[in-house]
């Protein structure tokens, strides 16, 4: 977890994740209050906050077109936002496991073509609970692909990233594995 932006920038906040956009802005998911915040990285100024998650935000990613942002949270959702207006565009409710509790969406990543999104989801409870990588169709929310991740494999802070070609999906964790995302 990133505890603060470099102190020379004067921002003293606790973040769960961050990701940069093409414009040089920085988007962050705040662990403290469940908002997604947009910062101007050059000026170290807050440009806006997006509210929609009802719990911690642990994953954020810019769409390849730079016009949309996805956020994943402890409320079991992936939310899509307009990066310019801050309007919420869609809410994808992630299904995982048989528990009545909502899963935790710990990380999100867009496929380079922009039509798919990957989400790392896990059970609530300990960080070493079972998890799963899900690849969803961005337009419909339909699950395209899933890869179970055994307990103890990924630790508390897994991250996802597609290769530039979109043929591989990297899943970071304790085992530092690469999961193939074939057929995309």
Verbal overview:
The chain is mainly beta. It has a single domain, classed as Methylamine Dehydrogenase, Chain H. The protein is 0% helix and 48% strand. The strands form 4 sheets. It has a 4-stranded antiparallel sheet with strand order 1-2-3-4, with no helix packed on it. It has a 4-stranded antiparallel sheet with strand order 5-6-7-8, with no helix packed on it. It has a 4-stranded antiparallel sheet with strand order 9-10-11-12, with no helix packed on it. The protein starts with 14 loop residues before the first strand and ends with a strand.
Topology:
Elements: E1 15-20, E2 25-30, E3 36-40, E4 45-50, E5 57-62, E6 68-73, E7 77-82, E8 88-93, E9 104-110, E10 116-122, E11 131-137, E12 143-149, E13 159-162, E14 168-172, E15 177-180
Antiparallel strand pairs: 1-2, 2-3, 3-4, 5-6, 6-7, 7-8, 9-10, 10-11, 11-12, 13-14, 14-15
Question: What brief labels describe this structure?
Answer:
disordered N terminus, 15 strands, Methylamine Dehydrogenase, Chain H, 184 residues, 0% helix, mainly beta, 4-stranded antiparallel beta sheet
């Amino acid at each position: 977890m990133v505890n603060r932006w470099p102190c020379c920038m004067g921002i003293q906040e606790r973040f769960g994740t961050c990701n940069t956009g093409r414009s040089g802005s920085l988007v962050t998911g705040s662990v403290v209050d469940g908002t997604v915040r947009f910062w101007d990285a050059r000026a170290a100024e807050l440009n806006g906050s997006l509210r929609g998650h009802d719990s911690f935000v642990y994953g954020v990613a810019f769409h390849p077109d730079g016009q949309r942002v996805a956020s994943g949270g402890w409320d079991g959702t992936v939310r899509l936002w307009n990066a310019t207006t801050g309007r919420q565009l869609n809410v994808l409710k992630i299904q995982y496991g048989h528990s009545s509790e909502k899963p935790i969406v710990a990380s999100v990543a867009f496929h380079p073509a922009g039509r798919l999104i990957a989400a790392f989801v896990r059970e609530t409870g300990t960080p070493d609970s079972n998890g799963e990588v899900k690849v969803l169709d961005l337009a419909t929310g339909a699950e395209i692909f899933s890869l179970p991740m055994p307990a103890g494999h990924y630790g508390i802070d897994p991250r996802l990233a597609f290769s530039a070609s979109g043929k591989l999906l990297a899943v970071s964790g304790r085992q530092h594995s690469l999961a193939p995302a074939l057929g995309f």
